[in-house]
């Protein structure tokens, strides 16, 4: 219940945020058009930052909402908001002409940090599959994905180096982790017990009066000081287990001399009086007994007084304790009401508990869906049973009234509407002819029959001329629009682009959909108290209305068939009364709709299924045997270590430079491309290619893409495709595409994709025939992938300039170059790698180490730590601390010595990237034009001087 109320309140907060964002966008649409790209960039980037926060809130609502009817509203809003966010991001990329964008100005304006607008994995990932396909994918053991470029960056996951086993001795597997935990626990126990002993001994010495209470003279026990050791307990050498008592220092006393002392078990022997006692002695004894009784009463009173005093003290402290607790509770409630503290219980495992609660709530979605479907079925059955006959009677009465009204005014019966036209629903909507219109139509037909052939010919020519004029008018309007676009482009080229926020490129369909969905929600849910529906049950009133309309539509065709026959009987009787020949009404044929695309072209017929006679299991087994379907390591895109370029915004916007990107920006770009791989219909690229030197984590990113989307991985690398004969490539790709559609979401990976498009195949790779895939890849795979399908083609390349530019460029929709490691990314990599092996202190010289090794690939840094910090070296860390010189010497002592990629080699990647990627190509042209203009300006100034 509490969780439902929390989610309901969070949804209300999200709705308020949505209203605020839409209001902000409405204000932006009132801005005057501007030609300053920096102003437009600030406006769009600020709006983008707001949408990022809104999308995070709506995604969480979509993930945790169980009430089915509300979930439908949240789905539309979340999908539209994510689509709008992607549109704004694309707009920023088009303005900056780069995949790497910088919005630092908006962050300063909104007082945010880069992490606040960082693209995160949507919480509704991954797309759920059916149990049948889950069982299919888990039934076979798959081969792991391998990389020919050796850039998996898995040094942290490598096992420790162990010496080779001695064949003369049996191999005994040791649980080293458990042994270390036991040894550490024993060491902690030993030191803790020694600490307790030292504290106790100090107290005995420092406070003897407090710890050595004065013994009673009549009750002294001899407690000796002894050592002891329990055999079932771990023996701790540095600590002697002792028992300290309050009198272990006291000397033994002879208790026999104490008065009134009776040793335990001693019985006083009875003595027989030989002489009669005197009266005085008897009286004395009686007086002693009375005194003793008075003393006993006094002791009882003293004991009672002590008990009462103790009870009063206990009660006083208990009341004070209760009052303190009450004040704390009131202060907590007041602070929570004012929003000063978070009511959620904090703890070390808070994140894990939150994720577990969300996962358990997410699993209940299926239960609520089934309950909603069952409620719909039950309500429909109830309406059919209870209201069905009355509905049919109402429909019949309405149509008969239409017959009667038409006959009273026109003395005829109109044509009965066909079912494919909508049936008698047209009568309810008033879309049929009125009696007056019917009479006019009959008069027109009568006059049409009386016309001569010449008149008909003239009218046909006039209609033809009118159609030609309308056609010419439409062509003139199209030409006028084209001319306006040409003039606008010429004006933009001469004066610069004008950014008008009222144009459709800014106010898109996603924005309008959000407005309509929010207005519809406020209208429908205005009288619904969402906090009261603690069980999150469906609203039955809406289900009743929907099912009533559905039952009405289902019963109307049945009634139409009966009333159509009744209308024919009436028409037959009318013809008999008017002494006319009865002609049965011919049913009007339905016009066949020609399937056309956007430009009026006929849709291509889908190719026949070449494997219709085979089962899904057999196709899956075939691909597994050929090592096409493979497993992969579970990774996250956040595992790709790298920092952001924090100086790029000023250099790009104020200094007109083209700064290099940083590794951290790659995470945001790839994650934004994956938004369409979830359950929401969000646009995504069909394919993209990752380019970069060896060791920069291309294969790791492919595995992260598969892990984040929970995709099935298809490997089409040249080594995998080599055994397939060229004649069977069409069938092979058909099977892959068919299985990729069945097992969505799926990722099709091509490692070293440039080999598929080689300009010239190297001699040592001719036996693989890597280029045979390029002849069929575009036609039989990429073009057949639909945009709405959750299929993604991902390629990696470490030498893209060896491929043919044309085919390579057509096969991949987007290209992304992995930047060189800068100072910030190198420092993060060193910290990450060293913390995996050993902890490093604040005094470790990471900054100079990162400066010296700037430019080295992540794989080189991880390998350096792995080979430097071996087991033997880590055993000596206590007496020989690690130094930065050891890590640097690894690169210099290695034969051959390792060096970072040179600028000349990296320029090959940049050159290819600026030719292949559309935005990079446009930005290169823009920067070239700016440099030429700047050179001309400097030349003019030099001439003037």
Automatic annotation (TrEMBL):
Pfam families in the record: AAA (PF00004)
Keyword terms: Coiled coil
SUPFAM superfamilies referenced in this protein's UniProt entry, alphabetically: P-loop containing nucleoside triphosphate hydrolases (SSF52540)
Coiled coil ranges: 277-308
Biased composition (Basic and acidic residues): 165-176
Region annotation Disordered: where it falls in the sequence: 145-176, 444-471, 579-611
Annotated Acidic residues bias: 154-164
ATPase AAA-type core domain mapped to chain residues: 689-801
Compositional bias of kind Basic residues: 579-605
Protein name as it appears in the record: ATPase AAA-type core domain-containing protein
Annotated organism of origin: Culex pipiens pipiens
